[in-house]
Amino acid sequence: MPSFRMPSTFRREATLARSVHLLREFRYEQPDPARFYSALADDTALMLAGLCPEPLAGAVVLDVGGGPGFFADAFAARGARYLSVEPDAGEMAAASIDQRTAVRAQGEHLPFRTGSVDVCYSSNVAEHTPTPWQMADEMVRVTRPGGTIILSYTLWWGPFGGHEMGLTHYLGGHRAARRYTRRTGHLPKNLFGVSLFPITAAAGLRWAREVPDADLVTAIPRYLPSFAWPVVHVPIVREIAATNLVMVLKKR
User: What's residue 94's pLDDT?
Assistant: First the structure.
C-alpha cells in the first residue's frame, strides 16, 4: 500500500476531539437522524476537502448513496456542484428535503456518462450492497481522468459492523438480527443478508490495487485521529481497529 500522502489540512483536522465528537453523534442515528446526518455531512465535506488534491469549489461531486439529502447543503457551502444517487425512494423522502439534484438509481448502475464527474464518493454504503465492488467499478467509470474516487465503508469485524445490533454481530449476523428482533419487537433497519453484508478492509484494498483504471493513493481509518492512521497497514488488526476504511483513488 502507498505511504500516506494526505494533505496536511486533513491531518490537522483528524484530531482526537473530532473522533470523540463523532462517536457521541453516532448515538443519535436513529432517535434524531437529522442531528446525526447533519453532523456526518459536515464532517464528510471537511474530509473530502482535505482528501481531494483540487478545491471542491466548482467541482462536480457525485454522492453515491445520498440518502435523504443532508449532504447537499454541506457540499454547496463549499461551492461544489453536488449530485446524488439513491435507490430507495422512501429514504430519499425521509427528511422532506429538496432533492432537486438527486437521481433515483442503483450505485451498481450509475446513470451518468463515463468521465462526467470530478469527484465520486460513497459514504457508508458499500456494506449495504451485496455487490460493493461492482458499485466501486461504476464510481471509477463515471469519474474523469485525473479525478478522485473516495470510498468509505464500515468494516464488518469492527465494533460498528453490526450497526444498531451493537456487538452482537460477533455472534453471527443472522443470530444478531434475531436477538435484536426479540429485544425490540421489530426487525433491525439494517437486516443482515438483506440490507447489511459483511465487508472487509482486505477485500476493499485488493479491489483498489487491482482496478485497471485508477490508482490507490492512500487508505485511512475514517474516524480515528491521525496518530492512529498506521493501523490500516496491519492485516487482521485493521479489520477491528480501523472501524471504517476510506480509500482514495485517482482516475487514470
Answer: 52
Q: Which among 153, 161, 163 is positioned nearest to 246, based on CA atoms?
A: 153
- What is the SS3 assignment for 250? strand
Question: From the centroid of its chain, how far is CA 22?
Answer: 14
142: pLDDT confidence band, cut at 50, 70 and 90?
very high
Q: Is a pLDDT exceeding 80 seen at residue 90?
A: no
Structural domains counted in the chain: 2
Q: Are 122 and 139 in contact (CB under 8 A)?
A: yes
Q: DSSP 3-state assignment of 120?
A: strand
Quick check: is 3 in a domain?
A: no
In the block, cell 464488518 appears at 156
pLDDT at 92: 58
In this structure, are 103 and 185 located in the same domain? no
Q: Is residue 1 in some structural domain?
A: no
pTM of the shown model: 0.91
2 is a domain residue: no
DSSP one-letter code for 230? G
Residue for cell digits 502507498?
Answer: 2
Same domain, 174 and 187: yes
Question: What span, in angstroms and rounded, lies between the C-alpha atoms of 18 and 22?
Answer: 6
